[in-house]
Amino acid sequence: MNELVTLILAAGHGKRMKSKKHKVLHTVCGTPMLEHVIDLAQQLNSKETVCIIGHEREQLMPLLDQKHVKQVVQAEQLGTGHAVKMAASYFGSGDVLVLYGDTPLIDIETLNAFVAYHSANHFAASLISTVLPNPTGYGRIVRNNAGDFYRIVEQKEANASELLITEINSGICLFKASALSEGLEALRNENAQGEYYLTDVFEYLSGKGMAIGAYVSDQPDSLMGVNDRMQLAQAEGYLQRVIIKKHQMNGVTIINPEATTIGKSVTIGMDTTIYPGTILKGKTTIGEDCIIGPDADIADTKIGDGVSVKHSTLIESSVGDASNIGPYAYLRPKSVVGKAVKIGDFVEVKNSTIGDDTKISHLTYVGDSVVGKRVNIGCGVVFVNYDGSKKHISTVGDDSFIGCNSNLISPVTIGDGAYIAAGSTITKDVPPKNLAIARARQENKANWSSKYQK
Question: Domain named MobA-like NTP transferase: which ranges (predicted)?
Answer without folding.
Answer: 7-123
